[in-house]
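Problem 12. The chain below contains 123 residues. Write out its predicted structure in token notation.
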Amino acid sequence: MRPALVLVAHGSRDPDWRGPLDAIAARTGALRPDLDVRLGFLELAPPAPDEAVAAALREGATRIVLAPLFLGQGAHARQDMAALAARLAARHPGVPLELLPSIGEFDSVLEAIATALGGAVPR
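Solution.
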């Protein structure tokens, strides 16, 4: 069973905006070479999450894990991600699909951000 991890972010017209997200995807893939790691954007930038999932399935993924790259629980995290998961489940019946909590819900992420920010200010 080959899982695909689709990192879902908002999107922007500014191509430089996605640099950190590309880095997260590359680092995740390096840490977990067994995962097919892809990015998908809800708006303003390609590819859409639906396209990222379809490409992963075409290339042999047998399970999809959606990872919302949102710190807070705004409308995208609460509503759009649930709708996306439901749409993908209907479009790809029989393919196991999991929706992770938003990245800001992980204590380890909050701790890493706090550590980075605290370390950025000289004593």
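Discussion. The chain is about 45% helix and 20% strand. Students who got a different answer should revisit the alignment rule from Section 12.3.
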